[in-house]
Amino acid sequence: MSDAVAALERRDWGVLKLLLHPYLHWSEGGVTIRGRTKVLAHLENAAPQGPPDSYELRDGQIYRWTV
């Protein structure tokens, strides 16, 4: 998870994509975005964030991320 936070802070979308599960659930401010492609598009326009409040791995990739 620390690799994902570092990639997010660097805005390194190529590295971050490899760490995120294709069916990712990203919850932030009461809104959930589903799917790695949609989450990456959201993050490109969002302010950088720190670590999540909680997360879940599936198949070695981040499947759920809650801020």
Walk me through what this model shows.
The longest helix is centred in the N-terminal third of the chain and has 9 residues, at 2-10. Helix content is 37%, strand content 36%. A four-stranded mixed beta sheet has the order 2-1-4-3. The relative contact order is 0.25. A hairpin with a 2-residue loop joins strand 1 and strand 2 (31-34). The chain is globular and about 25 Å long. With 67 residues, the chain is α+β, with helices and mostly antiparallel strands. Helix 1 (2-10) packs antiparallel against helix 2 (13-19).
How many alpha or pi helices?
A: 3
Structural class designation:
alpha+beta
Indicate the overall shape.
Answer: globular
Overall mean pLDDT: 94
Distance between the termini: 13 Å
- Percentage of residues in strands: 35-45%
Give the fraction of residues assigned to helices. Answer: 25-40%
Low-confidence regions: none
Report strand order across the widest sheet: 2-1-4-3
Count of extended strands: 4
Run of helices and strands: HHEEHEE
Describe the sheet with the most strands.
4 strands, mixed
Question: What would you report as the Rg, rounded to the nearest angstrom?
Answer: 10 Å
Short recap of the structure:
This protein has 67 residues and is an alpha+beta fold. Helix content is 37%, strand content 36%.
Descriptive terms for the model:
single chain; 67 residues; alpha+beta; four-stranded mixed beta sheet; 37% helix
Topology record:
Layout: H1 2-10, H2 13-19, E1 20-28, E2 31-34, H3 36-44, E3 54-58, E4 61-66
Parallel strand pairs: 1-4
Antiparallel strand pairs: 1-2, 3-4
Helix pairs in contact: 1-2
